[in-house]
Write a structure and sequence with these properties.
Chain A contains 14 helices and no strands. By secondary structure, chain A is mainly alpha-helical. In chain B, helix 4 packs antiparallel against helix 5 and helix 5 packs parallel to helix 6. Classes of the chains: A mainly alpha, B alpha/beta.
Chain lengths: ~325, ~260
């Protein structure tokens, strides 16, 4: 594939995958019925299935993927490390912790903004911690270990909350947050995270040039005129907003933020700035397709989207890590 | 070349470092160092490992927090300049030059134009001219489309210098640009730096090879335990006693040539 076709190609793939997600499902719908339902014509139950169930679900999968793909690409640029990603670094787990905390202590009833805000706060704290650690340790392996530690800690805290929570806690709720799902999402759910998502995307896209400068290392990047502190703060903020918002919609979904930038990078000459947009599109497409697979899989209980993402993503993560054996000093 | 037409520079750009002290906790790394760097000067900064050379360079650039003293470019405090204004005045080639990604050579050189707002999708004619000139001077034009991970150490060193030259800054500060290069590539790198000085640039360069420093530098600044202990032309400052004092080696010095005989 040629560089010039990358973005148009991914946009087409995004549209096709979302449309495909609309007509695949328990009630198969022909293309003609989908199109009538899209313009709110035709059979009323078709309109309901499309607008209340399938389209919001497909868009949720796409948006969550785009958010995770973009924050993965930006964190990789900032930390100069192809293994950086909200899931691996414990950012998603911390966001889940934030969300479950407010849910199980009844704070979520106060306002619909509470859950997204808590998830984002969790994500921001984790991203700041990781970036602080990255400044100090400088070793790729140590940084990943800090992320693993943060993930385990957040998981343990969630279990602890579950034991202490005043409200009865159902195991399936916990699994939803830890494994991730976009089932039963509505446009209202998306509307509440939209401002955070927009802010996150906008912030990360302003850091593009700085990410390219960081190719040279922090010292030389300062030398050519990059304000490193500002760059760090903006990437942490943008990535925290996006991963937190993604978790607020779908729980913790791992690995998609690693795979998308990794696939995209050779097509953009390894320029971190130019990985952002294609990573967003590709990660969105991956999650839409994975969610279709989840819905169509002939299992008695529906699979979780995060499980499918990890089934594909974890081996890919190991493969990328193995390829770095020479450079991972 | 039109280097001096660059907004950050002027023909008279001068770096003035006065009384700089750098401390980490209670440990002083640089103690009351002062020197001046003028256009047309190639100044070598030498001293044993841990003498504070890199800290002094970073403090001169405004990248290191100083406890006392000031570094000025044309009378303006470097720490008061914006990062891009500073980058337009002083090009900096740090010692550690790890590339995070296998970028193309032309894109790395183009990063020298970062302070001017250049990026692969947004290159002005002026950026293009600067990058082409820098790649020509460092003889890497034929490598433009190569990826960084396919280059030899000598080629990569020249790519980094091309990046620094592409900024067309009036001052260049380079930290061991010849480290880990074979003798021929060391000379090629120093020749590029010398040409930059002949064009009116000012260079402060850390060198570990005293012979190289004596051959190319108009002045040598000698550092030991955080202090500048001597500053002057090689003929005057390179002596048997100084080699013993600063480096702890017994050396034979005659007419600007040097032979290191043994450790003292």
């Amino acid at each position: 594939m040629n560089q010039h076709w990358l973005i148009p190609g991914l946009i087409s793939a995004a549209i096709i995958s979302v449309l495909a997600a609309c007509f695949l499902g328990a009630t198969p719908m022909a293309v003609g019925r989908i199109i009538s339902a899209l313009v709110r014509q035709g059979d009323q139950s078709d309109v309901t299935i499309l607008w209340q169930i399938r389209l919001p679900r497909a868009l949720a999968a796409f948006i969550v993927g785009a958010a995770l793909g973009t924050s993965g690409a930006a964190l990789q640029g900032l930390l100069r490390n192809p293994l950086a990603e909200p899931g691996i670094l414990g950012v998603s787990a911390s966001a889940s912790l934030g969300a479950t905390f407010v849910l199980y202590y009844g704070l979520a009833a106060v306002s619909a903004w509470v859950v997204p805000s808590a998830a984002i706060l969790g994500a921001l704290l984790a991203t700041s911690l990781i970036t602080f650690a990255a400044i100090r340790v400088r070793s790729v392996v140590t940084l990943i270990l800090v992320g693993v530690g943060l993930s385990s800690f957040s998981g343990a805290m969630m279990t602890l909350l579950m034991n202490l929570a005043p409200n009865p806690f159902s195991l399936s709720d916990l699994i939803n947050w830890m494994l991730g799902s976009v089932a039963n999402r509505s446009f209202v759910d998306l509307a509440f995270v939209a401002p955070f998502l927009l802010a996150g995307f906008a912030i990360l896209f302003t850091t593009k040039r700085g990410l390219t400068a960081l190719t040279l290392g922090e010292e030389a990047a300062s030398g050519i005129g990059l304000d490193i502190k500002r760059q760090r703060i903006l990437v942490v903020l943008g990535a925290g907003l996006l991963s937190g918002a993604a978790v607020a919609v779908a729980g913790a979904i791992g690995f998609v933020g690693i795979i998308a930038p990794h696939v995209v990078r050779p097509f953009v000459d390894y320029d971190p700035a130019r990985t952002l947009l294609p990573s967003a599109l590709l990660a969105g497409v991956i999650l839409v397709i994975a969610d279709v697979a989840v819905r169509l899989a002939p299992t008695s209980n529906e699979l979780k989207l995060g499980v499918v993402a990890a089934l594909i993503g974890a081996p890919a993560f190991v493969w990328i890590a193995m390829q770095r054996r020479a450079a991972a000093a | 070349m039109d280097r001096h037409a660059a907004p950050g520079g002027s023909r008279m750009t001068k770096l003035d470092v006065q009384d700089i002290t750098v401390e980490v906790g209670a440990t002083p790394l640089v103690k009351q160092a002062s020197f001046t760097l003028r256009p047309g000067e190639l100044v070598a900064l030498v001293g044993p490992n841990g003498a504070g050379k890199t800290s002094l360079l970073r403090a001169s650039l405004g990248l290191e927090l100083v406890s006392t003293g000031i570094s000025q470019v044309n009378g303006r405090d470097v720490t008061a300049l914006s990062p891009s204004a500073r980058a337009k005045a002083i090009a900096y080639l740090p010692q550690q030059r790890p590339l995070a990604w296998p970028s193309r050579v032309r894109d790395i050189a183009l990063l020298g134009r970062f302070a001017y707002g250049a990026s692969p999708g947004r290159i002005t004619a002026r950026d293009q001219t600067a990058v082409s000139a820098a790649m020509q001077k460092t003889d890497i034009g034929h490598l433009a489309d190569r990826r960084a991970d396919t280059l030899s150490g000598g080629e990569l060193a020249r790519v980094h210098i091309a990046r620094a030259l592409a900024a067309q800054a009036p001052i260049l500060i380079a930290d061991e640009p010849t480290a880990a290069l074979d003798p021929r590539h060391q000379l090629r790198v120093m020749d590029v730096i010398k040409a930059y000085v002949s064009d009116g640039g000012a260079v402060l360069v850390v060198l570990h090879d005293i012979i190289l420093a004596a051959h190319y530098a108009s002045r040598i600044i000698w550092m030991q335990s955080g202090r500048i202990v001597a500053d002057g032309p090689p003929q005057e400052t390179l002596t048997t006693d100084r080699m013993a004092d600063v480096f702890g080696v017994k050396a034979a010095v005659s007419g600007g040539t040097l032979r290191v005989l043994e450790a003292l």
